[in-house]
Write a structure and sequence with these properties.
Mean pLDDT: 87
CATH topology of the largest domain: Rossmann fold
Shape: elongated
Number of helices: 13
Number of domains: 2
CATH architecture of the largest domain: 3-Layer(aba) Sandwich
Structural class: alpha/beta
Strand order of the largest sheet: 4-5-6-3-7
């Protein structure tokens, strides 16, 4: 997946900070322990001379070199055993002086070396999974920052706007409770939701409320209008770099919320992109929420059968009823 230069730099800065913090913390523990127990420091100094002792033996005969190395190993084993004994007596973990990196695979470098298991030959380096996850997280946060999630909450969703009609009120009360429950119990196995109904009935409000709560749980949420996403994807697709940055981000987000489906200009390209997003996320079992002003019949008229079948077959549908909330609010 291609990310912006800014995202790569932020990720590397964060990884470098993790490594530096881990090393500083280890050095601090070492200084404190050496002060409390000089014997540990003496043992570590003796162990640190291992390389020098081995190099010094290279002028000897092969047999003497072998004996010297064996003696050094024996001495080191004795020193290590003594060190473990002291640490146990002090009730200090054996790995207390080790550097505790956030990622043990790459030691907080962001990359790990690929080695042949049989020969041990290096075949270069590869981006570590911790680095990849951080890039995804930062990219999602950057996109989420462009959306006013703080403007919509469950607390300011007013059901009294729907009380003029009993059927509408009961339906909207059910939808509201469903959305609250969805956000409280959210997980990567949560179902897909389709919000549909006329404009101004609260679809965007409840979508943003869910997004806000899910983000608080530590999940990455990508929210935005279908029209804006498709415009970005088209620019990247046919631009100079032929990037798939936005498309990949939409396919990988823990929760994707597509707002205003049906308001975009429909083409074979947008149908293809929408199918790719939905199909990929369904295959990955990642939850998606779609809001649309279109009815099922209108969706069928606008989109390819393959797209509609995925929406109808894998999304729980919630029909929003009532009068335009924004107009009712203006009259109050």
């Amino acid at each position: 997946m291609a990310y912006s230069k800014e995202i790569y730099e932020r990720a590397l800065n964060e990884i470098n900070k993790r490594r530096t913090d881990a090393e500083i913390s280890a050095e601090k523990r070492k200084t404190e322990l050496y002060k409390e127990c000089p014997d540990i420091q003496y043992i570590d100094l003796q162990l640190a001379q291992t390389g020098y002792k081995i190099i010094s033996s290279y002028g000897l005969s092969p047999d003497d070199v072998e004996k010297t190395i064996a003696n050094i190993k024996k001495e080191n084993d004795t020193l290590k055993a003594e060190k473990r004994k002291i640490l146990r007596a002090m009730k200090v973990p054996e790995d207390y002086l080790d550097i505790h990196y956030t990622c043990s695979k790459c030691n907080d470098t962001g990359f790990y070396e690929i080695r042949d298991e049989e020969t041990g030959i290096s075949h270069g380096t590869k981006l570590c999974s911790c680095h990849i996850e951080l890039l995804k997280k930062l990219a999602a946060e950057q996109m989420a920052a462009q959306t006013p999630l703080e403007l919509s909450t469950f607390e300011d969703f007013d059901l009294s706007f729907y009380k003029d009609d009993k059927e509408s009120f009961e339906q909207m009360k059910y939808i509201f409770e469903t959305c609250v429950s969805y956000s409280r119990n959210f997980g990567l196995d949560s179902p897909n939701l389709l919000f549909y109904g006329r404009t101004g009935l609260g679809k965007t409000h409840l979508s943003l409320a869910i997004a806000s709560e899910v983000i608080k749980k530590g999940y990455n949420v990508v929210y935005g209008s279908v029209n804006r996403f498709f415009a970005k994807i088209e620019t990247e697709k046919f631009g100079r770099n032929n990037d798939t940055y936005t498309l990949d981000l939409l396919c990988d987000a823990d929760l994707l919320i597509l707002d205003d489906l049906g308001m975009e200009f429909s083409t074979s390209f947008t149908n293809s992109v929408l199918y790719t997003i939905l199909d990929t996320r369904i295959c990955k079992n990642l939850p998606t929420i779609i809001s649309s002003n279109l009815s099922f019949d209108e969706l069928k008229d606008k989109y390819h059968e393959s797209v509609v079948s995925r929406i109808i077959g894998t999304f729980e549908s919630l029909e929003f009823l009532g009068k335009d909330v924004r107009q009712s609010s203006d009259r109050r």
